[in-house]
Amino acid sequence: MSGIYIHIPFCKKACHYCNFHFSTQTKYLDQFTQALLVEIELQQQYLNDKIETLYFGGGTPSLLSKEAIQSIYAKLKDNFDFAQELEFTLEANPDDLTLQKAEDWLSIGINRLSIGIQSFQPQSLEWMNRAHTTTQAHQSIQNAIAAGFSNISTDLIYGTPHLTDQGLSADLEILLNYGIPHISCYALTVEEKTALHSMIQKKTMKEVDSTQQARQFNLIVDRLEQAGWEHYEISNFSKPNQRSKHNSNYWNGVPYLGLGPAAHSFNRNSRQWNVANNQLYVQSIKNNTVPFEMEHLSTTTQFNEYMMISLRKMEGFSFEKIKKEFGAAYEIHVKAIAAHFVQEGKLIVTPAGYTLSKEAKFFADGMASDFFWLED
């Protein structure tokens, strides 16, 4: 099985923290859509397996018209073999998610929504420069449920300057009361070339408070686990059997094709990414050329990525897999480092290998780097 990701590189406005590729020049949406339809044909040989997941991300896919989504989906079905039980996700901003749109999306075949709530707290939304209000955040969820969606994910961002622990707790209770089955929780990260980074550099905004972030991360983990949810990836929580199939496949090394500007593709042996420029993308596609760069993945790169991803998953890493796929030397390397972390209480032994202890989860990425094998 494989997956397809469609990057819709347009937004109504720029959020202060976002470093994803997008443009606010939405007048070029139709031009982009036409180029995307051509790229689908040009890339039809990239994947050979059935397509198990389809994900419209961005940017803001909910800006697309019903007709545009239908045309993209139809072109995909003409060029790829879709599994009967397809997980079809669309990311939506609350200010776009009307009842009519939700009903339209469901009629097209979309069966999962990922709603960019980020917060229900007015001060936090204003600080982030989000396009929606608290009222619209509530209404978007109500509209999705009323239209018939049951597979709904929502995003929350924690560690922002105005978000108190009480406010974060209130956000979680709202989502639990709505019966949402999946929540993605992301710590505020300062990325270069964002408005947030510029404000911090100019001293008009304080640095991120890592103590607040660690405390709020633990607050989220405790509350959702208390509610019976799985903390199946560092930033992702779900009710039993409600994990995101698409993102889980990323973390499990399943091949995927990315379409659209800045979209990434992976076929186990190499990774490629399209140019992060809408006009260059469109012009290249007009010449029947997909504008991408490619990286062939060495054994060491694949191992380092495996350690990075597996430490973020609740299942952790497996010595058997490491030895089978990377070799005995890598297994010995990992065992020596793992023993140190076990002594410190940061790793827990499982039947398959090791997973992070609760106290170590907030530091997953930093710990992963300790396992990295340096290129020869």
Q: What is the radius of gyration?
A: 21 Å
How are strands sequenced across the largest beta sheet? 7-8-6-5-4-3-2-1-9
Q: Which superfamily, in CATH terms, is the homologous superfamily of the largest domain?
A: Aldolase class I
Helical content stands at 40-55%
Taking the alpha carbons of the first and last residues, their distance comes to 33 Å
- Might you state the CATH topology name of the largest domain? TIM Barrel
Uncertain stretches of 5 or more adjacent residues: none
Shape: globular
The biggest sheet, with number of strands, parallel, antiparallel or mixed sense and barrel status, is:
9 strands, mixed
Computed structural class: alpha/beta
Instruction: State which percent range the strand residues make up.
Output: 15-25%
Q: What's the CATH C level of the largest domain?
A: Alpha Beta
Number of helices: 14
The structural domain count equals 2
Query: Can you count the beta strands?
Result: 15
Overall CATH architecture of the largest domain: Alpha-Beta Barrel
Order of helices and strands: EHEHEHEHHEHEHHEEHEEEHEHEHHEEH
Mean pLDDT: 93
Brief write-up:
The protein has 376 residues and is of the alpha/beta class. The chain is 42% helix and 21% strand.
What does this structure look like?
The protein has 376 residues and is of the alpha/beta class. It folds into 2 domains: 250 residues, TIM Barrel (Alpha-Beta Barrel), CATH 3.20.20.70; 71 residues, Arc Repressor Mutant, subunit A. It is 42% helix and 21% strand. It is built from 14 helices and 15 strands. A 9-stranded mixed sheet has the order 7-8-6-5-4-3-2-1-9, sandwiched between helices. Strands 10-11-12 form a 3-stranded antiparallel sheet, with no helix packed on it. A 3-stranded antiparallel sheet has the order 13-15-14. α1 runs parallel beside α2, α6 packs parallel to α8 and α11 packs antiparallel against α14. The longest helix is centred in the middle third of the chain and has 17 residues. The radius of gyration is 21 Å and the shape is globular. The model has no long low-confidence stretch (mean pLDDT 93).
